[in-house]
Amino acid sequence: MVSLQATLRAPRGCPWDREQTHQSLRTYLLEEAYEVLEALEAGNDAQLAAELGDLLLQVVFHSQLAREAGRFDICDVIEQIQNKLIRRHPHVFGKIRAKTSAQVLKNWEQLKAEERQAERGMAVAKAPASLLDGVPRPPGASRGPPAHPACLPHRL
Question: 14 and 57: one domain?
Fold first, then answer.
């Protein structure tokens, strides 16, 4: 899939794919995420598999754009999430104990808070005031319900 996307972006590839940027693909990324949610709600496994593939394409596409710019590639994306999963599962890969899902979630939130603080260079972690604290907000968006995907291209 990675080489397929590279071929689509190559000089003899697809003109539409070659024109895309991170900015131009934002709507598609959000649209595909919503379509995954719709497939989950419908309980349709074939649809879910197809929509997850579409969402994966967005990850591969953005990674290809970044590779072309010399910033990172899909291997970096995979390495980042692999390291995060290991770091956030010390009850599996470390010495922390967690016998219940509640303990796992408590540890997960604490680790996330510590990571955010380390990124900010602060010494003491503060508990988030909201479950959405730390979740990036799209430019100009409120914390209200998300717009329907059909409205996104028209900014309705």
Answer: yes
Same structural domain for residues 23 and 60? yes
| 99 vs 129: CA distance, rounded Å | 26
Residue 142 lies in a domain: no
**Shared-domain flag, residues 7 and 65:** yes
The tokens for 148 are 């329907």
CA distances from 19 to 15, 16, 22, 127, 139 (A): 6, 5, 10, 42, 22
CA–CA separation, 140 and 118 (whole Å): 27
Q: How buried is residue 51: exposed, middle or buried, by Cβ count under 10 Å (0-12/13-18/19+)?
A: buried
The answer to whether position 79 is within a domain reads no
Chain mean position to CA 95: 28
pTM of the model: 0.74
Tell me whether residue 146 is in a domain.
Answer: no
Cα 133 to Cα 155: distance, rounded to the nearest angstrom: 24
Q: Tell me the per-residue pLDDT of 47-102, one tens digit each, with 9 for 90 and over.
A: 999 999 999 999 999 999 999 999 999 999 999 999 999 999 999 999 989 999 99
Q: What is the span of the domain harbouring residue 107? A: 88-132
- Residue 103: its H or E element: helix 101-120
